[in-house]
Structures are given as structure tokens and as C-alpha cells.
Design brief:
Layout lengths: L2 H11 L3 E5 L6 E5 L26 E3 L8 E5 L14 E3 L2 E5 L3 E6 L13 H18 L7 E8 L11 E7 L4 H17 L3 H12 L3 E4 L3 E4 L10 E5 L6 H4 L3 H19 L5 E6 L17 H4 L3 E6 L20 H9 L6
Antiparallel strand pairs: 1-2, 1-6, 3-4, 4-7, 5-6, 7-9, 8-9, 8-13, 10-11, 11-12, 12-14, 13-14
Helix pairs in contact: 2-6
Length: 344
């Protein structure tokens, strides 16, 4: 093996991962030194009674009670490591750094088979409260520029543990798609002195051809340029840039839990597998953030959930990356989702 290759592998070996930046697209890519299979634990590590198989809780409800209802733990096989610094370095024109960050698992319920959409409103609200708490806490760490929540449900969506759970990641970079959104929202605000997302909400509510569900606080709709069949966004009707700063009261958490459950049930009746991702404001206090970056973000950005169902029978791969093919018009998808009877 060449000496340079050996040195590169040895640099990554400590954590098993490193981050490399594509100089053309500016996106960060996780490179794994070698594939590590999941250990055979002999039992579900997320179930009650198996807590010894997991790292210690970083959040639990009720606190200090062995009969927990929601808990958050460091991931058993994390992509990112919270220890140390990013150690950014160059290799010629290329940039790379350690896979610094946080990677946590939100264990949503003690019941191994009870999905988020089937939980009680109160319990789902406690899951959202865990999101708020962990995002707020991780944003205190100035090493992290972005914190998000994502949820993969079903084998088709790459769910890695059967027990109902979400995941939280904190990274020293802003994901490329979120960066696109932030810059687009900023340009729109500079041009019109209005929030792009608020204008989208207003138009969708006026037209009601792509709306799926709404109440006096939240809207769910299929985006005008949906990437996949039944893609659905959920966002507040009023302007709020940061999820964790908006969802501070129990009433707000409860209302969102009820609304989110209803939307998920509609989607699950058609596509049980999906990806759910929270898009929210970046960490403005991060030490890697350039001074003056995102000065108007509290006014121009709008937090939202993006839900991308995995429909194996109708989804098609696209021939040119980032150019999506969708065989179902969002107007048709929204009408079909609206017609789904959702049990209260």
C-alpha cells in the first residue's frame, strides 16, 4: 500500500469516519474507513429492561424514573463523534475534517411496535418536547453550525432499528440543501422584504389545490415541485424561523403532535415507509459561522418538516442527480391525501 494511502487510513481509523468536501458542489460527504456491522445484542437495545445495552441517557421523561416514556441516547453506532474539534485540514485543493458532531437516538415509546402516528397526542407531544430540549442544548455548543431531527420509517426508508425512534444530528457544517434554502430565502427577503415561506403558505391557502390538511396553526401541503409522489411539507401558518424557539409551550407541542399524527396517518395509508426531516434555523452562535452571515434569518426563514414517502411501485430513479422525476402531480397527490379518512 502506498504511504499516502496508509497515512489517510490511519488518520480516519480513530473514529471510523471523516468528512470530505466536494470542491465543485461544496457539499460535505461522510467517508467511512471500513463498514462496521451492527453487533448482535440478542435483544432490542431500545426496549425497556435493555438499557444496559445502550449508552447513558442524555434526556429522559419522566426524569429519574426507570419507567421512562421517552428517552434520548447517543447513537449505538454514531456517524459523528462529539469529542474533540473538527481539525479542518487541506490536502492540496481538497478540504476535510474529522466527523465531529453529535448523533442521538430519540426512543419515542417503550412499546416496540407502536409507531409515532399511533401514539396518544400527549405522548407524541412529549417526543416533540424531547426534540426541542435536545436541539436547544446542542445549539449551545459553538462547534455545531446545524442541528436537525430526522426519522426513517420502514425498511424501504432505511430504518436501522425496528423500535420506533427518531434521530438527531449536530454538525459543524450546514447541509447543502438547507444552505440552498437559506440563501434563496435571504435573496427573496432582500428583494421583497417578505418571507418566501410565508408567501408560499398564503398562496397555498388561497388556492387549496395542493393543501392536504390545515387548522388555525399549521398547514400540510404537497409542494408545487414535489420531488417524489406524495411529498408533504408541514409548517406553521405564522412566521417562526426556529423550531425550538417556537415550540416552547405544552399547548403548542400538543397541537403540533395532533396535527403531525394526522398527516402521518394519511401518508401511511398510501406509503407506510417515509423519510421525515426537520428544517430549521442554523446555529447563529457557531464559531465557524462568518460574521454577519444570515443576519435576517429570523425574518426570512421558516421552520418546516419535509416528509418524503418511499413508494416503490411508482418511484423512478432520476438519470441526472438532483433532477428529480415524479410521476404524480402534487395537485393529484394532495387531493388523494385529503380524501383519506383519518381516525381521531
Amino acid at each position: 500500500m502506498e504511504r499516502a494511502d496508509m497515512a489517510a487510513k490511519n488518520a480516519v481509523r480513530g473514529s471510523g469516519m471523516e468528512l470530505r468536501k466536494d470542491p465543485i458542489t461544496q457539499s460535505w460527504v461522510i467517508q467511512e474507513y471500513e463498514q462496521v456491522s451492527w453487533p448482535d445484542l440478542g435483544a432490542c437495545p431500545l426496549c425497556p429492561g435493555q438499557e444496559a445495552l445502550c449508552p447513558p441517557n442524555v434526556y429522559e421523561y419522566p426524569y429519574g424514573n426507570p419507567n421512562w416514556q421517552v428517552r434520548v441516547i447517543p447513537h449505538l453506532r454514531p456517524i459523528y463523534r462529539i469529542e474533540g474539534n473538527a481539525e479542518r485540514r487541506g490536502q492540496g485543493l481538497y478540504d476535510k475534517m474529522r466527523a465531529l458532531g453529535a448523533h442521538e437516538v430519540v426512543v419515542e415509546h417503550p412499546d416496540h411496535s407502536l409507531s409515532l402516528s399511533q401514539q396518544s397526542d400527549e405522548h407524541a407531544a412529549q417526543v416533540l418536547r424531547a426534540y426541542v430540549s435536545r436541539i436547544s442544548d446542542l445549539k449551545k455548543d459553538r462547534r455545531f453550525r446545524y442541528v436537525t431531527v430526522f426519522r426513517n420509517q420502514g425498511a424501504l426508508a432505511g430504518q436501522d432499528l425496528e423500535h420506533p425512534h427518531s434521530q438527531i444530528t449536530a454538525t459543524p457544517f450546514i447541509p447543502r440543501r438547507v444552505g440552498y434554502e437559506l440563501r434563496s430565502a435571504q435573496r427573496y427577503f432582500d428583494l421583497k422584504d417578505r418571507c418566501l415561506f410565508c408567501d408560499i403558505v398564503q398562496q397555498e391557502m388561497n388556492q387549496k389545490v395542493r393543501t392536504v390538511e390545515w387548522d388555525d396553526l399549521f398547514l400540510a401541503f404537497c409542494p408545487f415541485a414535489s420531488r417524489v409522489p406524495y411529498e408533504t411539507w408541514l409548517l406553521p401558518l405564522d412566521h417562526h424561523g426556529a423550531f425550538e424557539e417556537h415550540l416552547v409551550s405544552w399547548d403548542q407541542q400538543l397541537r403540533l403532535a395532533r396535527f403531525l399524527k394526522s398527516v402521518l396517518r394519511r401518508l401511511e395509508s398510501i406509503a407506510p415507509a417515509y423519510h421525515l426531516v426537520l428544517h430549521t434555523c442554523p446555529n447563529l452562535n457557531a464559531k465557524f459561522e462568518k460574521a454577519g452571515n444570515w443576519q435576517t434569518v429570523s425574518e426570512d426563514y421558516h421552520w418546516h418538516f419535509e416528509i418524503l414517502p418511499v413508494v416503490a411501485a411508482t418511484s423512478k430513479s432520476y438519470s441526472l442527480k438532483e433532477v428529480y422525476y415524479n410521476s404524480l402531480l402534487p395537485e393529484v397527490a394532495a387531493e388523494e391525501l385529503r380524501s383519506v379518512a383519518v381516525a381521531v
